[in-house]
Amino acid sequence: MGYSKYSYKMVNLRLLHNDCWTSHMDGHVVKSLGRSFDHSDNGLRALVVVSSSSMKTLKSLMDEGKIKDIVNVQRYSDKFIVDIVQEYNNSVLSILNNNGAIVLDTVKANRREYWTFVTYEYKVPMIVKELNKIGVVEKIKLSDYDGSTREIGLTESEIKYVIAAAKAGYFDYPRKVRAKDLAESLGVKESTFLYHLRNAQKKLINKLLRDLDIREQII
Fold it and tell me: S-S: 168 plus which of 105, 117, 137, 177, CB 3.0-4.6 Å?
């Protein structure tokens, strides 16, 4: 097995996809759970999470032919999981797949698509060139890819205490339990409990802020 001389890059980009259904989702946020290629009709299947207002917009877009089909809709709480079918040809995913990129995340919001993927650095110019044929790449950011940087890195104690705090209602307003009482139930000093809890909160918030920076605070 040989070793590649080409470096991997993590790419974050913002795209206005011309006349795609996403370009009609003004004011809406759509979170993609996963995508797959349907060989039977050359369609791109996607599971997305949307709000009630976004669900109405999706139905309108299907009636207008912007979306090929809505296969299934499942409601949970105030959200919907929607199984949609769109054209695979000239889709962002088709371009990324053809160039061997690995998709890590994607969000559609305010008529824009936000993609995070990993690819060889030398392939980035070609990907951008092809994406610009179907839309406008408005912003792109490259960074060295290190899988560990996507992890939050909580210790066992931090995981234990943040889960216990969440279950006990420590983060509720008003709080359902005091830190002193929760620490006592866990068999540790209050100072120990708060130390690990605040470390966990700091790591979680930093991860959230990094993600928001990638999205430019779109939500």
Answer: 177
Rounded to whole angstroms, how far apart are CA atoms 33 and 41? 21
The answer to whether residues 80 and 48 touch, using CB atoms and an 8 Å cutoff, is no
- Looking at the chain, how many residues does it have? 219
Instruction: Judge whether residue 218 has pLDDT over 60.
Output: no
Beta strand 102-109 pairing with 112-120: antiparallel
* Residue from 86, 43, 91, 88 nearest 65 by CA: 86
Measured between alpha carbons, how far is 194 from 121 in angstroms, rounded to an integer? 43
Contact 134, 17 (CB under 8 A): yes
Q: What is the dihedral of CA 104, 161, 217, 144, to 10 degrees?
A: -40
| Domain range annotation of the chain | 8-148, 151-215
CA 88 vs. chain centroid, Å, equals 20
Residue 140 has pLDDT above 80, yes or no: yes
